[in-house]
Each structure stands twice: as C-alpha cells, then as structure tokens.
Amino acid sequence: MSPLSEKEHAERRPIDEAMKETMAVEAERVDDVGTSKSEGDTFSLDEEKRLVRKLDLWHDNRSSYDKGIMSAATQFGFNDDLKLTTIVGHTADGKPITDNQRYSNASMIFYIGYLVGTYPMMYLSQHYPTSKVISLATFLWGAVVMSTAGCSTYTGIMLNRFFLGFLESTVAPAFTVFVTFWWTRKEQALRTSLWYCCVGLATTFSPLINYGLGQIKSSLLAWKPIFLILGAVTIVWSVVLFFALPDSPLTTKRLTESERKIVIRRLEQNQAGTISRKFNKDQFLEAFRDYKLYSCSLIILLTGVPSGALGTFGTVVINGFGFDHFDSLALTCPIGAITAISILAVGFITRKWNNLRYVCIVVCALISITGTVICWVGPRDDRGLLFAGVFLVAVQVSAGGLAVSLVASNVAGHTKKATVSATTFVGYCVGNVIGPEIFGASPGPVYHAGFMGSCICLCCVVVIAIVTYILLRRENGKRDRIYGERVDSHSIEEDLSDMKNEAFRYVL
C-alpha cells in the first residue's frame, strides 16, 4: 500500500478524541462517523460514547477499605489488647514516647503477603477469567477480615495480615491489565485515577464509619465489631462482583454484536495486543529487559513509602500532634479527601491534555516534598502547620496512580503487560513495607526518621520521572524518523509487545 493510500485508508477509520494521543501526528480533528477495519462495520462517535458510558458503569470502584481498618482500630485499644505498642519513656511535658515496632510489623506483613501472592495471582488471572479470580479472592479476604476479630496474640495478627495481603494481591495487577482491554490509552489515565482514588475515598469516609462501629456496645472488645461487620460487607460485595464484573470484551455476553465490533476496533487502535490465555516466554523476558518496568516500579515503590506510612501511622501521627482519639480519626477524613481530589485532578488533566503524565508526577512529588520537610523540621508546638504538612504529603499518592496508568498505556503484549504490572506492584509492596518500618523505628510522636526517609524517596521520584520522560521522548522521535507516520498496521490477534510494534508510540 502506498503512503497516499495509507493516508486515505486512515482517514476512513473512526478517530475520536480518545484516539488522538495514539497518533504520532497528534491529529486535531475528530470525525463524527468512522469505519472499522472491516468494510461495512460502521459506527458513529455517539455510539462509541454510549459504549464508553456503559463500560464505566461496569468499572470496579471498590475502595481500598479493608487494609486500612487496622489504623482506625488503634483508637479503640487494638494496639494495647494485642500488645503492639509499648511506652518506653516520656517527653519533658509528660507525653509518652512509644515503641511501635510490633505495630509496624503487623502492617508490614500485609505487604509481604501481597508480595508473595502477586506472581501466583498474575498467573491465575491470565489463565482463568479475571473477573472470577477477583471475585473469589475478594470473598476469601472478606472471611480473613472477619477472622481478625478472633486474634488475641501478636503471632495471630501477623498470620492474619499475611493472608489478607496474599489475597488482596489479586486486584491491583489484574485491574491494570483489565483496564487495558476496555478503555483506550488516552482514557486509561482517568479510569485508573477513578480506581486509584478509592484509596482516598476510603480514608475520607471510613474514619467516621469506623468510629461509629467502635461505639457498638457488646460483650466484644470495642475494635472487634469493626472487623466483623466490614468483613461481612466485603463478602457480600464479592458476590456482586461475581455476577456483575465482565471479563473479556471478546467473550462477554453483556455486549451486543455492534458494541463488540466497536470494542475490537478500539483494541486495534490501542495497539495493545490481544487478550491471551497463553504464556509468552519472549514477552516475559522482554519485560525484564525494558527500563520502563524499572522506572514505573521504582516510582510506585518510592511513593509507596510515605503512602504506606500515612496509611498505617496516619491517625497515630495526628494523635501525636496533640489531638484526642476522636479528633485524630476525624482529621484523617480531609487527608483522604485531598488524596482523592489530587488523583482525580491529575487524571482529568492528563485526559484533557496530552503527554503531561510525567510532568504531573514531578509536580505532585514536589508538593509532597514540601509537606515532608514541614513535618520533619517544623515547630512541634504548631499543630496547624504540622497538620498542613500531612495534607501536602498525601498529594504524592496521585503520582503513584499515574505510574500505574503508565504501565497500562506504555506496555503492549498480554504477557508482558501482566508481568510488568505484577512487578510494579512488587515495588508497591516493598514501598509499603519500608514506610511503616522507618516510622516504626523512629520514636513517636515526632517520627523524624520517617519524614526524612519519605523526603529522600520523593526526591528520587522527581529524578526518575524526568529521566524516563527524556528517554521515551527520544524513543518516540526515533520511531517517527525510522517508520514515519504511525498507522494501525497490526490486528489485535498479533499480540505484539510495544518494543516489537513499530506503530506503537509512548505516552509521556
């Protein structure tokens, strides 16, 4: 086919706003009506918009509630009953100096379980229907959450948290692959942000819900009903997921044939490869030769340090500023809101304007660096300033969310994408292990070493994001010079990786 006929052919294809980013020429026009790769399969922009709205309703916006329950339970005697915190002295003004090492270990072991479970769950998600693997794992971890109420020793809670992490490791890597085959590369950042912001939403509403649950009068210790009730809710939700969450767009019965044709055409334009149940050894090995794997993994790891620390020690740190138990719980609500708003904001920005994801990562990291410095060296008698610092630290969660979206958008080939996704969440686990550990090893209520370590990690995020941006920009330019204008020259059946597909251009 000549260059001219390629252009004429391309102009007949459906090109809406969600596709412009994947075109090397960054076309500014949007055609109202397009034609799929097969002559006669036509659909309008309105039809595609209706399909996207339908897909969004299927979006699993389940919040990251369960793993954060332990932080709220600390305000109802959880640490004292299980002997996770001990007082080792007092400050000059009489405030207790605490050793929280056991508590940080109980948080850390969750991510050890997550780490151990990541690759087995990746294997299951590729070889069996993803939606069914997710729903079964959700059912089992709901049961584990309920069993937390039966823990009475340090050993018991460590085992309980390990298995909770093992089971929850299903969701994040599976969703990163899942979103690839339902939304276009330009749509993925916002959809990933919607999913990732559930961490913030959970933090916004859960403290007050948990406080209410902690007021339940029963023969049980005050923190136990929290785990029993919320674990039961998770089990119910797993049943909803089993019946409501679709799997492959190529096989689901919840799409009409006309909708399925649109989905297939969108997949072809996505240049992401097919949905394959077959393990591709070459793609697996290629993933570990690709610097994008290490870049995204490190960004997620390094943002996971302050994120994991806030998730585990948030209420404890605020309590150390001089607030009582209820205020400590209530004040985590606006922190969750800031997290959710910042994630949605960067998702909207990167959806509306092209190639700003790495820029947003740098900006969010710089804002949070300011917050860590305030909490690290700020005056201890200024509670308002210290609390504002915690606010700013929370913004960095959105940088981690963008790194997750970059895995979905910048890696093609089913096995490679699954491998990179799983590896980045290994980074997530390691970061969330390091964060609570450095805070646990730093005496409360000041936690100087914890905030200093978080500051250093975020500085590294800035450097990695800038270097990766430069390398990917150069790679896109190199492909443009060698191959010229990008065209949709491959079908989804080919399942090519991004490094093997000359039509692939990286999102910046």
From TrEMBL:
InterPro entries xrefs: MFS, MFS_dom, MFS_trans_sf
GO CC, any one term: membrane
Membrane topology: Multi-pass membrane protein
Annotated Major facilitator superfamily (MFS) profile domain residues: 52-477
Lineage top rank: taxon: Eukaryota
Regions crossing the membrane: 108-124, 136-157, 163-182, 225-245, 298-323, 329-349, 356-379, 385-408, 420-439, 451-472
A Pfam family matched in the record: MFS_1
Keyword Transmembrane assigned: yes
UniProt-listed Gene3D superfamilies: MFS general substrate transporter like domains (1.20.1250.20)
Annotated keywords: Membrane, Transmembrane, Transmembrane helix, Transport
Localization per Swiss-Prot or TrEMBL: Membrane
Primary location recorded for the protein, binned into one broad class: membrane
A GO molecular-function descriptor: transmembrane transporter activity
SUPFAM superfamilies membership: MFS general substrate transporter
Name this protein carries in UniProt: Major facilitator superfamily (MFS) profile domain-containing protein
Organism of origin: Cladophialophora chaetospira
